Amino acid sequence: MTKTFTTDQRDALLAAAREAAARAYAPYSKFHVGAALLMADGSVVTGANVENASYGLSLCAETVAVAGILSSGDRAGDKGRLEAVAVTGGAPGAPGEGDVVSPCGRCRQVLNEIAQIGGSDPLVWCDGRDGPVEMRLSQLLPYAFGPANLL
Ligand SMILES: O=c1ccn([C@H]2C[C@H](O)[C@@H](CO)O2)c(=O)[nH]1
Q1: 126 C-beta closer than 6 A to ligand 1
Q2: Would you put residue 51 in left (φ > 0), alpha (ψ -120 to 50) or beta?
Q3: Rounded distance, CA 127 to CA 66, Å?
Q4: What is the DSSP secondary-structure string of 69-134?
Q5: Positive or negative, the Cα torsion across 93, 126, 80, 76?
Q6: Least confident window among 2-11, 30-39, 111-120
Q7: Contacts of 64 (CB under 8 A, 6+ apart)
Q8: Residue partners of 4: CB distance under 8 A and separation at least 6
Q9: Cα-to-centroid distance, 123 and ligand 1 (Å)
Q10: pTM here?
Q11: Higher pLDDT residue, 151 or 86?
Q12: What does the pLDDT look like over 79-110, one tens digit per residue?
């Protein structure tokens, strides 16, 4: 079943992502990312990027959000499926400010984990100055390797 959403629902999820981005800990890149995940039960879980002085240990916003859901004990099967994702980000004043931000490769794989265990192919809205770009996770990560291969 493919769920559809109203523009208001999409914009509310993007607003939640923007609120999360304001809480980013990104003193090194100054690139503040927020992610908001909408579950089938209507709950929204957000995450922001959390950088580290080692740089390479930095955590992306989408990964923080997925870890929040799964580590809270709400496995996707209990809480409901992952229905939609909103991602926003940028560095204020940087040349690329307002460019579309889509999940990095690692985050696509992390999102695929929670999507597959709940049996969904979530919509992903990527914020940008000309309005959000909408894709399915399966378009961002075709032929995904995931729990379906192992469980
Ligand atoms: O999908 C992405 C891509 C990047 N970042 C973060 C990592 C780093 O803190 C900053 C610059 O790469 O943006 C995310 O949170 N999500």
Answers
A1: no
A2: beta
A3: 19
A4: HHHTT--HHHH--EEEEEEEEE-TTSTTTT------HHHHHHHHHHHHHHT---EEEE--TT--EE
A5: negative
A6: 2-11
A7: 35, 47, 48, 49, 50
A8: none
A9: 20
A10: 0.96
A11: 86
A12: 889 999 999 999 999 999 999 999 999 999 99
Quote the distance between the C-alpha of residue 90 and its chain's center: 15
Q: Closest Cα to residue 111, out of 74, 82, 77?
A: 82
7-150: CATH topology: Cytidine Deaminase; domain 2 (3.40.140)
2 near 40, Cβ under 8 Å?
A: no
According to the model, what pLDDT value does residue 3 have? Answer: 81
> 56 is written with which tokens?
């390479």
Q: Which two structure tokens, joined as six digits, stand for 105?
A: 């490769």
Complex ipTM tops 0.85: yes
Mutate to test the pocket of ligand 1, among 30, 49, 127 (most ligand atoms within 8 A of CB): 49
